[in-house]
Give the backbone structure.
Amino acid sequence: MDQVDLPSPGGCSPHLILPIMKLIVENDEQKGYVREIGFESFLSMGELEMNKALNLWLVDKFNCDSEALELEGGISIPIRPLVKSVLGIPSGPIQVVEGLDVDDALKDQYTVNTRAKYAKDVANEMSSITDKEPFCIAFMMAILGIYLAPNTSLTVNRAFLGAVKQVDKLKEMDWCNFVATYLFKGIKEFKESNTTCVTIKGCVHILSVIFIDFVKDAAFEVPVGFPRLGVVTKKHIKWVVSHPFTSLMVHRPEESVYAAVLDSIAKDNIVKDGKCVDSETNSLSDTPATTDTNQNNNKHRVSGELGTVMPVKPAPCERKKGHNVMDTGNRPIRSAKSRTAEIIIYKCSPQLLPPIMKLITENVEQKGYVGEIGFGSFLSMAEFKMNRALTLWLVDKFNCDTEALEFEGGISIPVRPLVKSVLGIPSGPIQVVEGLYIDNALMDEYTCNGKVKNAWEVANGMCSITDKEPFCIAFMMGILGIYLAPSTSVGVNRKLLGSVRQVDKLKEMDWCNFVATYLFKGIKKFKKSKATFVSIKGCVHILSVIFIDFVKHAAFEVPVGFPRLGVVTTKHIKWVLSHPFTSLMVRRPEESIYAAVLDNWPKDNIVEDGKCVTNTDTLSDTFGTTDSDQNKNRHPVSAELGTLPISAAVLGPPVTSHNTTSWGIVEYVEVGTSPRSAAPGPFAEQIIFPTSGEQLQSSRPSSEPCSAQMHVSPDNPKEMNRGSTSPMENAGDWSAKKASVDQPSSGQAKRARGVAAVDFNVLNCTVCSYPLKCPVFQCIGRHLACGRCVAELPGEQCQMCEHGSGFSLCPIMDDIVSSAMVECSHDGCKSSVPYHELDDHESACSHAPCYCTEAGCGFIGPPQVLLGHLAALHSMPVHTVNYGKVHRLLASKPRFLLHGEGDDSVFLLVVGALGAAMVVSAVCIRAGASPSYAVKLWVNGPALPSRAAGRIKWKMEAVTSSTRPGEVVVEELPSFLTVPPAYLGWLGASKAVTLDIRIDRM
């Protein structure tokens, strides 16, 4: 039987390194040299042993296109980004280049009988070398030949001499990418070879270490510490090879010891064949790029955390088929899932902002500046760690046409309208414009050595700026480059300088739409790209936050509060990542925490490609016709009109009220029910007259007073002026031909098919001027009155008629009054109530606007929106309470917000003083009094003479409601808890009372 030669795992021999390093460690001078060139990790290298079977199995599992170990269960482990963590060697900005010229004398030192010296012999000889330069050259040639880049002959590679002889630059070279690329090329050559006996070039030991680190078994403990070559030893490999390799389970990347490294890949520069794709990486013969120095004196790019480590692939790969095709002219658009053979990154780095914001918060002046420009939400930004897999999955789910995340079951989540709720940044009327003119001096401030400054460097530097304008410009450039609008590089976007330098207008600019449009364009460009190395521009963090907020699972509690970047944290994304994404159910938009926002979205301005369909001015233009709201923010007066694609010619004359100009889509048809029906009033209602069993519907835009005409009466068709034509008919409108009512047929009235206008003043009592209630009475002169007023009139005679007349019941008006339904005017409330009940409903509506508690702030909004406003902009503490359960709070501040779990009610816990005592009470922030709540409060302290235990208890059976919580004075409330001075003395100087609170929904 013929002998079959097995492939060799190559010349990589980590077991030969340890005895060499032991000799170097005993020589302080040589030990120092090794540290100076950045290879000190080898001095603590563990005892290692290679296993041929394991190496060959791992090489077989290695995918040359994706540069990853592809294991069972769809687990893919990228190798290149982990090389630094395994070896701990330099990954500087200078590319390692083979074949540079060297003099013959140096080449002869590594030649024997015209052949290259054996690497092992060079290693043995170097222990006797005392001078730094020759020692370092010998050291590098030995470890490259034995371990890092071994060839098939176990000799030194003299092509490296030109690189390693530049000893002073060794620490600045990118050895990690060089070793990775050398290994990947070696594996590729091995797989493509048809010869019988093949040797694998490269450091295959890296694959073994990484696989051992990913083994998932109860009996196997993954060692801790970095670099990994110092902690993964012969003991660990023996345990692994004692089991069938295919039987071993492996961790997912996000569960492994490398989780932090892999997660941060997205913000690192991409390198192809050792060359940086995002910025120029200098070759060995060039001058080093702009660098900085870390604590180990290793030079690296000034991009710091934004761009230090590189995932790569050596060459363009063959693309896989089966890409998603969207409606883009039949041009195939790639999904994130189909990019297994590509390197995909994003630079959005929310985890970098909290430390910077903490420094700003400690500086009262800078904190004030941030609040003034409208970016106060960032000061309370929560820690959030991005996940690459989740981000790419969400990008794949994003539909560029609908600007929505689309999930199974037909659930579509529009992203643009939620940006404001996620970020809490300004969404004013001024469009953010790139490329406005700026002077050279400002441009130079954000330029370094002819290139744009690093965004991380700008963010760090702004903490030392004291003047408002330069600080605000630096703040904006920093957060835009790091988080809100990051590009494919790590530099600031100087095109935005013209916008951000107008500090006084920053709060009036539409940053929400700018950030959304920038992200959507980035995703669209990514999906259309056919490049091997692709970077997604934009704030992809928004997608993760929104998805987490929509997760529907019994074991997952969606946090409360706005803006969302302050409440959705790493803890929540970790829970989501512990489940397969596709297995998680998502809420429908109307069930989500954004329900109120999405419900109101159609009323807001429509934006296309970042441009408002209404008159939203660009930064360089003057304002159009504008008005001011309670916060003195200017906005176009035609805001509400801008949502409707209808011309003024069709709509007729506009109706102008505070802040808005509106057009009623109505057809005026005169009906002779009253001598006052000459012309429609300016606030006429839209009414559809029903058939039996249906109710009359109205879409009254506001609670403004109405004029005194009624224009349609379906019960008096004979009196209709049939010769009149409507403005809509004259304008050729197809949607409302006539608002007439056909003659009755077969005893049944046919339903009116048009939309008619009614002045609701005709539904008011002529005596008390309040809305009519059944039964309705009418005099001979057609004056209408409610039954209560008629009973109080002298002799029940009409006082408006010249000679007086009696009243009789009017059944027709009873039908109209009982069926005339109007919508509540409060945003978010879709209730329709009878017209005569409207005032009562709106005065108690749960969506009635409430006022901000802070003096000088004119914010008004529903309780849930006010909760987010107070938490984000005024840093008021928010605590979630479960009804019927006791919660403990530290009353260290005069006001606390309590958010009721289940019904989104908002409570304000108020602390005050009554003499030397402390008083505490609670109010519900709302307009109405239903449902009712009971509050119990306990405070613990020392035992008082009158009590056996040091505990005071208080209960309020019915919590007081208020739409102006800022005006609440504890002592003026019906009931409150009094904390005696003795308790406060016992607490010491802090006077921070610990309260137990329980709220019950009655």
Notes: The chain is about 25% helix and 15% strand. The longest helix spans residues 175-192. The first strand starts at residue 62 and ends at 63.
